[in-house]
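Hey L., structure's done. Input below.
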Amino acid sequence: MKNGSETFEHGADIGVRGIGRTLAEAFEHGAEVMFSLMVENMEEVRPEKIVEISCESYDIEGLFTAWLNTLLAEADMHGMIFCRFKAEIRDNSLSGTASGEPVDPDRHRLGVEIKGATFTELRVEQEDSGRWIAQCVVDV
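Output:
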C-alpha cells in the first residue's frame, strides 16, 4: 500500500484509513486504499479516463463516506477501476476527480467487492501532529 493509507481489522468487514498532511490528501488516500482492496495489482491500473466527482454532506465525517460511496457508484456506472484521486474540500462539499480505466479481468487481479462505505468507526480529524486521519469501515 502507498504511504499515507492503510487497512485496519474489523470483524467480517474492512476498515480503510487515509492519512495526509491536508484533509483533502487524507480523503484521497482513503479512496486509494479502498480501491486497492478491489484490485490487487493497483500499480498496473492506468489513469486513462478522468471522471468528475462531487458530493456534499451535513458534516465532514459524512462527507468522507459520501466521497467513498460516490466513487463506488461512479466506478460501477462506468465499469471502471480508479487509481488516482484529487479532492477539493470547501465546508461540507467536495469536488474532485477520479482517474482510471475500464475493468479488464484479463489484466486486473480483482480483489474484494466493496458494497459501500459505512458510518462504523467513522472518524475524520486532525491530530496534534498536524496530520489528518479519515477512516471508516467498508462493507464487503
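DSSP finds two helices and eight strands in the chain. The mean pLDDT is 94.

-- N.
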